[in-house]
Amino acid sequence: QVQLVESGGGLVQPGGSLRLSCAASGFTFSSSGMSWVRQAPGKRIEWVSSINSGGSTTYTDSVKGRFTISRDNAKNTLYLQMNSLKPEDTAVYYCAKGSGWPSHAWGQGIQVTVSS
To answer: The dihedral of CA 28, 52, 109, 37: what is its sign?
Structure first.
């Protein structure tokens, strides 16, 4: 079955950086689009970024120029490099199978807190 396990979250000061990872198993990772979504406290899930099997990427406007999605098909791992973090980036981040949201499969989530 599809398994997605996020790691790399934590507490960071405004302006700082974090890199999230998502280890995937149970499906042919290299053939699948993948996405990151997030949910801030009291808010709906928000799509953040996607990467298709060919490596093309898309981003929501609020993270363009700050976040970079990438993938390592040899390691079955999805990444999200987050730079210039802002307090409004605070959320639980989920990786999801597919090139968009909603998805049929997503991980357990990882907390990212941006605060001084």
So the answer is: negative
Identify the CA nearest to 111 among candidates 13, 6, 26, 14: 6
Cα 75 to Cα 24, 30, 55, distances in angstroms: 9, 10, 15
pLDDT in tens, 77-108: 999 999 999 999 999 999 999 998 899 999 99
Q: Are 60 and 47 in contact (CB under 8 A)?
A: yes
pLDDT of residue 25: 97
**Tokens matching residue 112:** 């990212």
* Phi, psi values for residue 31, rounded to 5°: -95, 0
